[in-house]
Amino acid sequence: MKPIQMVDLKSQYHKIKEEIDSRVLNVIESSAYINGPAVKDFQQHLEEYLHVKHVIPCGNGTDALLVAMMALDLKPGDEVISTPFTFIATVEVIGLLGLTPVFVDVEEDTFNMDVRQLEAAITPKTKAIVPVHLFGQCCNMQEILKIANKHGVAVIEDNCQAIGAEVMIDNYPLQKSGTLGTIGCTSFFPSKNLGCYGDGGALFTNDDALDEKIRGIVNHGMFTRYYHDMIGVNSRLDSIQAAILDVKLKHLDEYIAARQQAALYYNKAFANHPNIVTPATASYSTHVFHQYTLKLKNVDRYRLIEHMKELGVPVMIYYPVPLHLQKAFAHLGYHKGDFPVTEALCDCVVSLPMHTELDEEQLQYITTNFLNTMDQFAN
After folding, report:
1. Which residues of 2-27 are buried (b: 16+ CB within 10 A; e: fewer)?
2. For residues 134 and 204, what is the distance between their CA atoms, to the nearest angstrom?
3. What is the spatial distance between Cα 123 and Cα 100, in angstroms, rounded to a whole number?
4. Segment 132-158, tens digit of pLDDT
């Protein structure tokens, strides 16, 4: 049996090695490393895949979120609503711009924003909502958009973990995640469902004016060479990463299907176990399983993780500390108990290996040993 990893990028690479190597060498031969033809090709192909008017590549997913807020002209003191159960980048950029993060709790089953709490968090200072499509499935975008439109608030979709997922909105066909809000943002970090071999990211929008503005911001606020119309940043997807992503984009649906099959195997193995709650799939979204995250009941989680590690199975916690209790956000004045669902999840979730190269032998080894270990460390 091959060694088990949280993400097996080497085996994935070997399956597409010829095409990847050829495309990378083409970029090197062309010496067009920045904003070269490979970037334009990938941009066009991703626009076609997502059925979105504009894709603007950038340096990474964090930059995508930062630039989205800059493009919307958010100013210090403006409030931006998101959730405390996510990677810090979502809220980090709010703080970087001097904006005020406002949290709403998440749903216990989907781990995504609890839309029932959203409207109560909106004030006259609210300028944007950042729903996070966590672990691979989408928030309830129909309700979020309805509330945002009612209050005249922008929606920035944090789609860094859910590219390729599809969302159901009444009276419309399924739409790709990240394309419904004012701006969508994604990351191409290597472990993502569509990942490059370094850092990378992109923004999506159907708004022509925002597209033009974002393209200037990511290039030092420059629309004409050496004429800077606004304060911008240096955030570009390099041509080598774009060439790699263009190859992998052709396989994205296949990669998603492989993750879904692995999740189905896990679900069947853990069904009806008294100490395990398997991931819920919302009725309005498909799930592309960037992570496969379980909730544990009455289990010594840290001893379980350590024992699984000894057996050669990595098990991770995403995320051990909610954002509202992080030292970086202590100045916001939140306290333990303010977001009870998020806090409970941080105390009980674990994520198992999830990637495109898991085979049945590995899945059987993981599930058998996980169940055996559960029996040892259940309270």
Report:
1. eebbebbeeebeeeeeebbeebbebb
2. 18
3. 12
4. 999 999 999 999 999 999 999 999 999
Burial label, 47 (beta-carbon count in 10 A; 0-12, 13-18, 19+)? middle
Q: In this predicted structure, what is the pLDDT of residue 87? A: 98
Q: Look up residue 20 and give its two tokens.
A: 């990847």
CA 5-11-17 angle, to 5 degrees, is 150
80: pLDDT confidence band, cut at 50, 70 and 90?
very high
Q: Is the pLDDT of residue 171 over 80?
A: no
Candidates 210, 163, 164, 147; CA nearest to 183 is 210
* CATH number of the 9-249 domain: 3.40.640.10
* Beta-carbon contacts of residue 30 (< 8 Å; ≥ 6 apart): 36, 37, 239
Q: How far apart are CA 287 and CA 284, in angstroms?
A: 10
> What is the torsion angle, in degrees rounded to the nearest 10, for the CA atoms of residue 238, residue 241, residue 244 and residue 246?
-50
Share of the chain above pLDDT 90, in %: 97
The residue type found at 220 is H
Cα pseudo-dihedral 66, 289, 117, 335, rounded to 10: -70
* CATH of segment(s) 252-377: 3.90.1150.10
> Taking the domains of the chain in order of start, what are their residue ranges?
9-249, 252-377
Residue 130 host element (H or E):
none
| Tokens representing residue 180 in the block | 């419904």
Instruction: Summarize pLDDT for 28-77 with one digit per residue, the tens.
Output: 999 999 999 999 999 999 999 999 999 999 999 999 999 999 999 999 99
